[in-house]
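Data availability (excerpt). The following record was deposited with the supplementary files.
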Amino acid sequence: MFKKLIALAFILSPCVAIFAQSDSKSYTQTINGTKLVFEMQAIPAGIFHMGNKNGKADEQPVHEVQLDAFWIGKHEVTWDIFEPFLYRDFEKQASVVAIPAEVDAVTRPTKPYLDMTFGMGKEHQPAVAMTQYNAIQFCKWLYVRTGIFYRLPTEAEWEYACKAGSNANYSFGNEISDLKDYAWYKENSGNKTHPVGQKKPNAWGLYDMHGNVSEWTYDLYVDNFYKQSKTKISVNPIAISNQLYPNVVRGGSYDETPENLFSSSRLPSSPSWKQLDPQIPKSNWWYPEAPFVGMRLVRPVKAPSKVDIDAYYNKLPIKDL
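Predicted structure:
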């Protein structure tokens, strides 16, 4: 459980207040019954300025947001841990014991009709082109495997973790010339993803927050959502996703220009990401024209109730006609 915040610990900048977080440390998660692991980075509770006065209209106005503590993936989710969820054969190969019945009962994605790596490779590469629903069902699979509630970040959590105390355009400052040291993007990516963790991390030890692949959040995209918090501190804000489009991805990707890799940049999902899908109705699981979209995990320090967990994981997909 989330312990009471005991004091204001320090100020990273005039606009970012970070609170003591005594009960969470960064850790490595083993996926029970397998040889698979991933790393989670502790992010302290605090208050920050969300948005960017130099950004696009949907990044304004800049406003104060207060967040509870959480952990977030040190890296984007890779095929190494995503593929055993997709295919039982891969899960059997990764397992050191028989797959438990409750794990085997988790609904798996339908097999895609094309290579969802798009020829960009698998080992240590970010998993791509999953729908938001697919990403949440992967989190459910992890929950059944580990007993720990993992989910997608909210927009606010993602931006807070990306900025890591900075109020510049990027987590490392404003100089576009430095972007190549932290990100894979249009200028240096060769128009493809790259193995995670090859560039410099931000100040909170997170890799590829800028570029490589855009990352799912749980929020519905509302272009003027920030105006609701113009005159007050917003506490753990989220625009609840109740429709298929548009939802928010963050961080920019390997095929984006620098201004779309700002810490504050927002991109709405689009039906065009399934434009060539021949299925009727279209797949709940895949975006065959979004090889630039991936995901990163979050675990809240304050665990939700079992009822809330079930509601998050068992929300029915919305048919895409």
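Summary of structural features: The two ends are 42 Å apart (CA to CA).
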